[in-house]
Specification:
alpha/beta, six-stranded mixed beta sheet, three-stranded antiparallel beta sheet, 8 helices
Length: 259
């Protein structure tokens, strides 16, 4: 007897763009752009200033209309921008809970703040927060909505170097815990390589290049394969680099110098 097994259903993309065009003053910033992002995939988007990165993210967030084409995103979606955009007259937990409906709103806001390490600041006023704390509140506000798609528009650009490292570690931990699809818009090639499964380069209103990043996590600049990918992305962005001399990390002096 032949048994017919059910065929697996195709996985629906978290983001699907087909022929997306957006014009300003008659000039196409997005010009017939096609893009797919799989559920749970972490994608970084690079491009020169004015290339349309933020326009694309705002279109996906429903904040920017498109002139032509089709885009499909999940209903459960949240965005974090470079500025935390917290309401100064609302305490931290109320900023996180803003717009949240249903039972246990405060408890859900407290749980989200706990995830970003700010359970002790739930009653604080936004004006008393550091820049890194304010961005963590913005992340908590996004996570409390349990998004299937998380849009990040240069959320770490205004932070100091050490705080950015901590935020990178936090965003990876939260992404693994909640498994949303992520689109990160950034100017920072290293940030894209440290965080993403795939890096896209936007040029002339289209995705000009996409590179899968098959590097183990956690990543750092010394991770094998990191520097060639970095050089490739910088080349695509019009920046040429000189090859760095190889360092023998097995040598005691090399290990000391690398610390």
């Amino acid at each position: 007897m032949t048994v017919s097994l059910p065929q697996p259903r195709p996985v629906r993309a978290a983001v699907e763009c087909r022929g997306v065009t957006r014009r300003f003053a008659g000039q196409a910033v997005l010009d017939g752009l096609d893009l797919d992002i799989a559920p749970g995939e972490f994608v970084a988007l690079l491009g020169s200033s004015g290339s349309g990165k933020t326009t694309l993210l705002r279109a996906l967030a429903g904040l920017e209309p498109i002139d032509e084409g089709r885009l499909q995103v999940p209903a459960a979606m949240a965005a974090v921008f470079q500025e935390p955009r917290l309401m100064p007259w609302k305490r931290v937990w109320r900023n996180v809970a803003l717009g949240v409906r249903g039972a246990g709103v405060r408890e859900r806001a407290e749980a989200a703040l706990g995830e970003v390490g700010l359970a002790h600041r739930l009653g604080a006023w936004p004006g008393t927060l550091s820049g890194g704390e304010a961005q963590r509140v913005a992340l908590a506000r996004a996570l409390v909505r349990e998004p299937q798609l998380l849009l990040l528009d240069e959320p770490f650009a205004a932070l100091d170097a050490l705080t950015r490292i901590r935020m990178h570690q936090l965003i990876i931990r939260l992404w693994r815990a909640h498994t949303p699809a992520v689109l990160l818009v950034t100017h920072d090639v290293d940030e894209a390589l440290l965080l993403a499964d795939r890096v896209l380069v936007l040029a002339n209103g289209q995705i000009a290049e996409q590179l899968p990043i098959r590097l183990p996590r956690p990543r750092q600049a010394a991770t094998p394969g990191f520097q060639p990918l970095r050089a490739r992305l910088l080349h695509l962005l019009g920046v040429e680099t000189e090859a760095e001399p190889a360092v023998d990390l097995s040598h005691p002096l090399s290990r000391t110098a690398s610390r």
